[in-house]
Amino acid sequence: MTATSKRPFPPLQPASTADAFAIRDNDWAAFRQLERVDDHWTLKRWAPEQSGFYWYLTFDDPALVDLVGRCQKELADDGIDPVPLDGLHLTMLSIGKSDDLSDAQLSTIVDTARPHLAEISPFALDVGPLTGSRSALRFSVTPWDGLLALHSALRDATAAERSGPELSETSQFRPHVGIGYINTPQSASRLIEDVKALRDFPPVTASVNEVRLVQLRREGRCYRWTDRAVVPLGT
User: Fold this and answer.
1) Whose CA is closest to 46, among 215, 217, 164?
2) Rounded CA gap, 221 and 46, in Å?
3) 104 lies in which domain range?
4) Exposed/middle/buried for residue 17 (C-beta within 10 Å: 0-12, 13-18, 19+)
5) Number of structural domains in the chain
6) For residue range 167-209, what is the model confidence (pLDDT) as tens digits?
7) Residue 16 falls within a domain, yes or no?
8) Which residue, 218, 178, 179, is CA-closest to 91?
9) Which CATH number fits the domain that encloses residue 129?
Protein backbone atom coordinates (compact mmCIF):
# COMPACT_ATOMS: atom_id res chain seq x y z
CA MET A 1 0.00 0.00 0.00
CA THR A 2 1.06 3.57 -0.52
CA ALA A 3 1.71 5.97 2.35
CA THR A 4 -1.48 7.85 1.44
CA SER A 5 -3.59 4.70 1.67
CA LYS A 6 -2.34 4.03 5.21
CA ARG A 7 -3.42 7.40 6.59
CA PRO A 8 -6.80 7.38 8.36
CA PHE A 9 -9.73 9.06 6.65
CA PRO A 10 -11.11 11.39 7.85
CA PRO A 11 -7.72 12.61 9.10
CA LEU A 12 -9.22 13.84 12.38
CA GLN A 13 -11.62 12.17 14.78
CA PRO A 14 -15.05 13.76 15.22
CA ALA A 15 -15.67 16.19 18.05
CA SER A 16 -17.67 13.46 19.78
CA THR A 17 -17.57 9.68 19.27
CA ALA A 18 -21.03 9.33 20.80
CA ASP A 19 -22.91 12.07 18.93
CA ALA A 20 -24.27 10.94 15.58
CA PHE A 21 -24.38 14.44 14.11
CA ALA A 22 -20.72 15.10 14.96
CA ILE A 23 -19.59 11.82 13.39
CA ARG A 24 -21.63 12.23 10.22
CA ASP A 25 -20.62 15.86 9.84
CA ASN A 26 -16.94 14.98 10.22
CA ASP A 27 -17.18 12.23 7.59
CA TRP A 28 -19.05 14.42 5.10
CA ALA A 29 -16.83 17.48 5.61
CA ALA A 30 -13.69 15.42 4.94
CA PHE A 31 -15.14 13.91 1.76
CA ARG A 32 -16.35 17.28 0.48
CA GLN A 33 -12.85 18.71 0.86
CA LEU A 34 -11.35 16.22 -1.61
CA GLU A 35 -10.42 17.58 -5.00
CA ARG A 36 -9.72 14.20 -6.58
CA VAL A 37 -10.41 10.56 -5.84
CA ASP A 38 -8.21 7.60 -6.78
CA ASP A 39 -8.50 4.12 -8.21
CA HIS A 40 -8.83 1.92 -5.13
CA TRP A 41 -7.12 -1.07 -6.73
CA THR A 42 -4.04 0.98 -7.60
CA LEU A 43 -3.95 2.88 -4.32
CA LYS A 44 -4.18 -0.34 -2.31
CA ARG A 45 -2.08 -2.78 -4.30
CA TRP A 46 -2.04 -6.48 -3.48
CA ALA A 47 0.43 -8.99 -4.85
CA PRO A 48 -0.99 -11.84 -6.97
CA GLU A 49 -2.51 -14.58 -4.76
CA GLN A 50 -2.04 -12.40 -1.67
CA SER A 51 -4.42 -12.88 1.24
CA GLY A 52 -4.52 -11.60 4.77
CA PHE A 53 -6.20 -12.00 8.12
CA TYR A 54 -8.63 -9.42 9.48
CA TRP A 55 -11.13 -8.95 12.26
CA TYR A 56 -14.46 -8.19 10.58
CA LEU A 57 -18.02 -7.31 11.40
CA THR A 58 -20.40 -8.57 8.72
CA PHE A 59 -23.97 -7.54 7.97
CA ASP A 60 -26.98 -9.17 6.33
CA ASP A 61 -29.72 -7.02 7.88
CA PRO A 62 -32.44 -6.78 5.18
CA ALA A 63 -32.94 -3.02 5.58
CA LEU A 64 -29.22 -2.39 5.18
CA VAL A 65 -28.93 -4.68 2.17
CA ASP A 66 -31.85 -2.84 0.56
CA LEU A 67 -30.31 0.58 1.26
CA VAL A 68 -26.95 -0.45 -0.19
CA GLY A 69 -28.62 -1.85 -3.31
CA ARG A 70 -30.60 1.36 -3.88
CA CYS A 71 -27.48 3.51 -3.57
CA GLN A 72 -25.41 1.25 -5.81
CA LYS A 73 -28.09 1.40 -8.50
CA GLU A 74 -28.10 5.20 -8.43
CA LEU A 75 -24.28 5.30 -8.70
CA ALA A 76 -23.94 2.74 -11.48
CA ASP A 77 -22.42 5.28 -13.91
CA ASP A 78 -19.89 6.77 -11.48
CA GLY A 79 -16.93 4.43 -11.94
CA ILE A 80 -17.69 2.32 -8.87
CA ASP A 81 -17.10 -1.40 -8.32
CA PRO A 82 -19.96 -2.32 -5.98
CA VAL A 83 -19.43 -4.31 -2.82
CA PRO A 84 -21.44 -7.55 -3.23
CA LEU A 85 -24.64 -7.43 -1.22
CA ASP A 86 -23.62 -10.66 0.51
CA GLY A 87 -20.24 -9.12 1.35
CA LEU A 88 -21.14 -6.10 3.49
CA HIS A 89 -18.64 -5.63 6.27
CA LEU A 90 -16.91 -3.27 8.66
CA THR A 91 -13.16 -3.78 8.90
CA MET A 92 -12.15 -3.73 12.54
CA LEU A 93 -8.46 -4.59 12.41
CA SER A 94 -5.88 -5.89 9.95
CA ILE A 95 -3.85 -8.67 11.58
CA GLY A 96 -1.30 -9.43 8.86
CA LYS A 97 -0.57 -11.31 5.66
CA SER A 98 -1.44 -14.98 5.56
CA ASP A 99 2.18 -16.01 4.97
CA ASP A 100 3.22 -14.29 8.19
CA LEU A 101 0.89 -16.14 10.56
CA SER A 102 0.64 -19.82 11.44
CA ASP A 103 -2.52 -21.69 12.42
CA ALA A 104 -1.17 -21.90 15.96
CA GLN A 105 -0.77 -18.13 16.12
CA LEU A 106 -4.30 -17.60 14.84
CA SER A 107 -5.64 -19.98 17.48
CA THR A 108 -3.78 -18.08 20.19
CA ILE A 109 -5.21 -14.78 18.95
CA VAL A 110 -8.78 -16.16 18.93
CA ASP A 111 -8.43 -17.83 22.33
CA THR A 112 -7.03 -14.61 23.79
CA ALA A 113 -9.86 -12.58 22.24
CA ARG A 114 -12.71 -14.69 23.63
CA PRO A 115 -12.64 -13.45 27.24
CA HIS A 116 -12.14 -9.86 26.04
CA LEU A 117 -15.22 -10.09 23.80
CA ALA A 118 -17.26 -11.84 26.48
CA GLU A 119 -17.11 -8.59 28.44
CA ILE A 120 -18.61 -6.55 25.55
CA SER A 121 -22.38 -6.81 25.13
CA PRO A 122 -23.99 -6.94 21.70
CA PHE A 123 -24.95 -3.50 20.43
CA ALA A 124 -26.70 -1.74 17.56
CA LEU A 125 -25.29 0.64 14.97
CA ASP A 126 -27.05 3.21 12.84
CA VAL A 127 -25.64 2.94 9.32
CA GLY A 128 -25.88 5.99 7.06
CA PRO A 129 -25.95 8.46 5.49
CA LEU A 130 -23.72 7.92 2.48
CA THR A 131 -20.33 9.60 2.25
CA GLY A 132 -16.93 8.75 0.78
CA SER A 133 -13.17 8.62 1.11
CA ARG A 134 -10.11 8.90 -1.14
CA SER A 135 -10.97 5.71 -3.03
CA ALA A 136 -14.35 4.40 -1.91
CA LEU A 137 -17.95 5.25 -1.13
CA ARG A 138 -19.22 4.28 2.27
CA PHE A 139 -21.77 4.83 4.99
CA SER A 140 -21.08 6.63 8.22
CA VAL A 141 -21.79 4.47 11.27
CA THR A 142 -22.88 5.76 14.68
CA PRO A 143 -22.17 5.79 17.53
CA TRP A 144 -18.47 4.94 17.69
CA ASP A 145 -18.08 4.25 21.40
CA GLY A 146 -18.93 0.55 21.22
CA LEU A 147 -16.77 0.11 18.14
CA LEU A 148 -13.80 1.83 19.74
CA ALA A 149 -14.07 -0.42 22.80
CA LEU A 150 -14.29 -3.43 20.51
CA HIS A 151 -11.29 -2.32 18.46
CA SER A 152 -9.23 -1.80 21.60
CA ALA A 153 -10.14 -5.28 22.88
CA LEU A 154 -9.30 -6.91 19.55
CA ARG A 155 -6.02 -5.04 19.33
CA ASP A 156 -5.01 -6.08 22.83
CA ALA A 157 -5.84 -9.70 22.09
CA THR A 158 -4.09 -9.69 18.73
CA ALA A 159 -0.96 -8.09 20.18
CA ALA A 160 -0.34 -11.36 22.02
CA GLU A 161 1.00 -12.66 18.71
CA ARG A 162 1.28 -9.57 16.50
CA SER A 163 3.02 -6.68 18.16
CA GLY A 164 4.54 -3.73 16.36
CA PRO A 165 3.50 -1.07 13.86
CA GLU A 166 1.41 -3.42 11.68
CA LEU A 167 -1.41 -3.21 14.24
CA SER A 168 -3.18 0.12 13.87
CA GLU A 169 -3.86 2.13 17.00
CA THR A 170 -7.44 2.59 18.13
CA SER A 171 -6.90 6.35 17.75
CA GLN A 172 -6.44 5.74 14.00
CA PHE A 173 -9.64 3.69 13.63
CA ARG A 174 -12.36 5.26 11.45
CA PRO A 175 -15.40 2.93 11.37
CA HIS A 176 -17.47 2.78 8.17
CA VAL A 177 -19.38 0.35 5.95
CA GLY A 178 -18.27 0.46 2.32
CA ILE A 179 -20.65 0.10 -0.62
CA GLY A 180 -18.26 0.50 -3.56
CA TYR A 181 -14.66 1.03 -4.64
CA ILE A 182 -13.71 3.80 -7.06
CA ASN A 183 -12.07 2.30 -10.15
CA THR A 184 -11.33 5.48 -12.11
CA PRO A 185 -9.15 8.40 -10.96
CA GLN A 186 -11.34 11.45 -11.33
CA SER A 187 -12.29 14.83 -10.03
CA ALA A 188 -14.22 14.42 -6.81
CA SER A 189 -16.78 17.13 -7.58
CA ARG A 190 -19.26 15.07 -9.61
CA LEU A 191 -19.05 12.15 -7.21
CA ILE A 192 -19.64 14.42 -4.24
CA GLU A 193 -22.75 15.85 -5.90
CA ASP A 194 -24.08 12.38 -6.75
CA VAL A 195 -23.51 11.19 -3.19
CA LYS A 196 -25.13 14.35 -1.82
CA ALA A 197 -28.31 13.48 -3.71
CA LEU A 198 -28.50 10.17 -1.82
CA ARG A 199 -27.85 11.49 1.67
CA ASP A 200 -31.56 11.95 2.35
CA PHE A 201 -31.99 8.19 2.58
CA PRO A 202 -32.47 7.66 6.32
CA PRO A 203 -29.96 5.55 8.25
CA VAL A 204 -30.88 1.97 9.11
CA THR A 205 -30.09 0.00 12.24
CA ALA A 206 -27.85 -3.07 12.17
CA SER A 207 -26.98 -5.49 14.95
CA VAL A 208 -23.48 -6.37 16.14
CA ASN A 209 -23.54 -9.72 17.92
CA GLU A 210 -20.25 -11.32 16.92
CA VAL A 211 -16.85 -10.70 15.40
CA ARG A 212 -15.25 -12.77 12.66
CA LEU A 213 -11.61 -13.51 12.04
CA VAL A 214 -11.47 -13.88 8.27
CA GLN A 215 -8.91 -14.73 5.63
CA LEU A 216 -9.43 -12.05 3.00
CA ARG A 217 -8.60 -12.30 -0.70
CA ARG A 218 -9.29 -10.34 -3.86
CA GLU A 219 -11.39 -11.85 -6.61
CA GLY A 220 -11.25 -9.51 -9.59
CA ARG A 221 -12.49 -6.18 -8.34
CA CYS A 222 -14.08 -7.25 -5.09
CA TYR A 223 -13.07 -8.73 -1.76
CA ARG A 224 -14.10 -12.18 -0.58
CA TRP A 225 -13.21 -14.04 2.56
CA THR A 226 -13.26 -17.34 4.38
CA ASP A 227 -14.19 -17.42 8.05
CA ARG A 228 -11.46 -18.74 10.30
CA ALA A 229 -13.28 -18.05 13.59
CA VAL A 230 -16.53 -16.48 14.77
CA VAL A 231 -16.48 -15.09 18.30
CA PRO A 232 -19.75 -14.00 19.95
CA LEU A 233 -20.04 -10.88 22.06
CA GLY A 234 -21.17 -11.00 25.67
CA THR A 235 -20.92 -14.77 26.06
Assistant:
1) 217
2) 12
3) 26-232
4) middle
5) 1
6) 999 999 999 999 999 999 999 999 999 999 999 999 999 999 9
7) no
8) 178
9) 3.90.1140.10
